[in-house]
UniProtKB/TrEMBL annotation, chain A:
Organism: Coffea arabica
Name of protein: Glyoxylate/hydroxypyruvate/pyruvate reductase 2KGR-like
Pfam families, per the entry: 2-Hacid_dh, 2-Hacid_dh_C
Gene that specifies this protein: LOC140005899
InterPro entries: D-isomer_2-hydroxyacid_DH (IPR050223), D-isomer_2_OHA_DH_cat_dom (IPR006139), D-isomer_DH_CS1 (IPR029752), D-isomer_DH_NAD-bd (IPR006140), NAD(P)-bd_dom_sf (IPR036291)
Coiled coil (UniProt feature): none
UniProtKB/TrEMBL annotation, chain B:
Name of the gene: LOC140005901
CDD domains: HPPR
Database matches in Pfam families: 2-Hacid_dh, 2-Hacid_dh_C
Residue ranges annotated for the D-isomer specific 2-hydroxyacid dehydrogenase catalytic domain, each copy included: 12-315
Domain D-isomer specific 2-hydroxyacid dehydrogenase NAD-binding: 112-284
Keywords: NAD, Oxidoreductase
Native species: Coffea arabica (Arabian coffee)
The protein, known as: Glyoxylate/hydroxypyruvate/pyruvate reductase 2KGR-like isoform X1
Signal sequence bounds: none
């Protein structure tokens, strides 16, 4: 058969490297259009406001449903339950058993967090629902904040700044505070975040100890087989482990007593890691030297007794709340969703 | 030797009280600040005073040195020497000691603390929480520290200690110094403006001399730019404060963490309303541990001098 001349021209075009390249790009564009069309119809439920960038992108790429848009949560779910293939949750509102049960077509929970304590992982496993989170991209920010909290607590940075702005420096010097460099740091949980904290604290000459479910063979730090031993042997105790049933209230009265009146507690984990009423009374009574807290048992509620204390620093769960990291986390959520709907391997699967 | 007969002049109150208590115990201590008319103290006692203990606030200037004919040693409770007339001391054969190294860690810690407090708005967030505002909405997003480029002016003990800490946050380090340092891996810039143009966080950590006065001027601030952050743990006069204030107020500079000011304890009130600055009342070495160690060094130097032994940390 004789091919029409235009075909021969095209064939020559395709068989050249430039031609193959153009062909590839054309195919990718077609694929991209098809994928977009596919995903546009996928119902994604966002549990609460968490990032305007993430919300915009979800709106653009999927069929976004916002749980908080509707006052009557139960009705909203009833009306839309069949549509929802994915849930995007976070540390405030994840995917508990009740939510999962109400979504028969749920395929994936993509959490805008590294912590998984707000997701019923057992139920997800049962139902074959995939779960992804955002590890690594937020490690640095959280570790930075842990050091920031330790420094701010020991050197009373916020108090000193307030002292100056309130005109008190004209009357007297600020009081003496306490040195950070060289103090022993005990880390509860030597995962990604705990290791990043240790790396930073080492540069301040701080000897590092840790407690973990098991000893880490590659860590050069001193291992303590119990939290109490760790607390008794460090001056600054940092909570950096995941929240599970076992680690709830891992910092209790005994641990606080072991840390003692010169000790400092830094919590960048989860509020429920710490027995909060015990912590508050220890601080108020001077049985604990100080605390730097980014998380609390009932956020955004914070025990008001802490507001009068100068030896505590109180932040509003801002561990990973930088512009750069928020975007990186959101991009990871989106990439995981896309991968799932296109049948590709998930980037950061948990289940 | 009956040291209780040796007159030692302390220029101003210094905390903790440990130093004053020890000086009082060991020597005949004269407290400058108890005499509103300085001549009231100097006239009757000038022949007795063989040592002056000063600090970063009040040292030993030419006037004071001239008024003390028997002065043998100035033992400064500081590492900065800008309040001591070193030339005059050299002329008169007066020994000078200071307290180097001890404050290195505290000063470097404070440098990093200021960077984190400015970038992550720690003070602002703490205030937000204490005012009960979290119930109404989240705090704003802030700026990441890890990985930002840090430029250090002055790579002495303190500058090096800051670099070592910032490296643990994966910050690329560069510096400006009077001369390039042979034993370091950090990138050298031959001018402050070049350094400021090539870093995101600029830290002042050099000593104050006539050459370094206003080393941070309008050009340097402009080079650092609207996303740049200035950290001053050196001396207030390192920075042209009026230029700094207008740059911050006008948004031409991204933020600042300041522990020192040109006219302490005055600090520019125009900055008090800004949330991208952290302002500290010269607390650089103000920890109990370090001040106690500094006091011991002042006392150790005085003792060595009066026992004719080698001084522990002489300058002149």
């Amino acid at each position: 058969m004789r091919w029409p001349s235009f075909f021969h021209r095209r064939r020559r075009k395709f068989s050249s490297p430039q031609g193959r390249n153009q062909n590839l790009h054309r195919a990718l564009r077609i694929l991209s259009v098809v994928s977009s069309k596919l995903m546009e119809n996928k119902g994604v439920l966002m549990t609460c406001p968490m990032s305007s960038y993430l919300e915009e992108q979800l709106q653009k790429r999927f069929r976004l449903l916002k749980l908080w848009d509707s006052q009557m949560k139960a009705d909203f779910l009833k009306q839309n339950s069949q549509l929802i293939s994915a849930v995007v949750g976070n540390t405030v509102l994840g995917a508990d058993s009740e939510l999962i049960d109400s979504l028969p077509n749920l395929e994936i929970v993509s959490s805008n967090s590294v912590g998984l304590d707000k997701i019923d992982l057992v139920k997800c496993k049962e139902r074959g629902i995939r779960v992804t989170n955002t590890p690594d991209v937020l490690t640095d920010d959280v570790a930075d904040l842990a050091i920031g909290l330790a420094l701010a607590t020991l050197r009373k940075i916020s108090v000193a700044d307030g002292f100056l702005r309130n005109g008190l420096w004209k009357n007297s010097d600020f009081g003496l505070t306490t040195k950070f460099s060289g103090k022993s740091v005990g880390i509860l949980g030597l995962g990604r975040i705990g290791s990043a904290i240790a790396k930073r604290a080492k540069a301040f000459g701080c000897p590092i100890g840790y407690h973990s479910r098991s000893r880490k063979p590659n860590a050069n730090y001193k291992y303590y087989s119990s939290v109490i031993d760790l607390a008794a042997n460090c001056q600054i105790l940092v909570v950096a482990c995941a929240l599970t049933d076992e680690t709830r209230h891992i910092v209790n009265r005994e641990v606080i007593d072991a840390l003692g009146p010169e000790g400092i507690l830094i919590n960048i984990g989860r509020g429920p890691h710490v027995d909060e009423p015990e912590l508050v009374s220890a601080l108020v009574e001077g049985r604990l030297g100080g605390a730097g807290l980014d998380v609390y048992e009932n956020e955004p509620e914070i025990p008001e007794k802490l507001f009068q204390l100068q030896n505590v620093v109180l932040l509003s769960h801002v561990g990973s709340d930088t512009v750069a990291t928020c975007k990186a986390m959101a991009d990871l959520v989106l990439a995981n969703l896309e991968a799932h709907f296109l049948g590709k391997p998930l980037l950061t699967p948990v289940v | 030797m009956d040291s209780n007969s040796i007159g030692v002049l302390m220029t101003c109150p210094m905390s903790p009280p440990y130093l004053e208590q020890e000086l009082d115990r060991r020597y005949r201590l004269l407290r400058f600040w108890k005499f509103p008319q300085k001549s009231e103290l100097l006239k009757p006692h000038s022949q007795e005073i063989r040592a002056v203990v000063g600090n970063a606030t009040i040292g030993a200037n030419a006037e004071l040195i001239d008024a003390l004919p028997k002065l043998e040693i100035v033992s400064s409770y500081s590492v900065g020497l800008d309040k001591i007339d070193l030339a005059k001391c050299k002329e008169r054969g007066i020994k000078v000691t200071y307290t180097p190294d001890l404050i290195t860690d505290d000063a470097a810690d404070l440098g990093i603390a200021l960077i984190l407090a400015v970038l992550r708005k720690i003070c602002g967030c703490d205030l937000f929480v204490r005012r009960g505002l979290w119930k109404n909405g989240d705090f704003q997003l802030t700026s990441k520290f890890t990985g930002k480029s840090v430029g250090i002016i002055g790579l002495g003990r303190i500058g090096t200690a800051i670099a070592k800490r910032a490296e643990a946050f994966d910050c690329p380090i560069s510096y400006y110094s009077r001369s390039e340092k042979a034993d370091t891996n950090y990138k050298y810039y031959p001018s402050v403006i070049d350094l400021a143009s090539n870093c995101q966080i600029l830290v002042v950590a050099c000593s104050l001399t006539p050459e370094t006065r206003h080393i941070i001027n309008r050009e340097v601030i402009d080079a650092l730019g609207p996303k740049g952050v200035l950290i001053n743990i050196g001396r207030g006069p390192h920075v042209d404060e009026a230029e700094l204030v207008s740059a911050l107020v006008e948004g031409r500079l991204g933020g600042a963490g300041l522990d020192v000011f040109e006219n302490e304890p005055e600090a520019p009130e125009e900055l008090f309303g800004l949330d991208n600055v952290v302002l500290l009342p010269h607390v650089g070495s103000g920890t109990i541990e370090t001040r106690t160690a500094m006091a011991d060094l002042v006392l150790g130097n005085l003792e060595a001098h009066f026992l004719n032994k080698p001084l522990l940390t002489p300058v002149v």
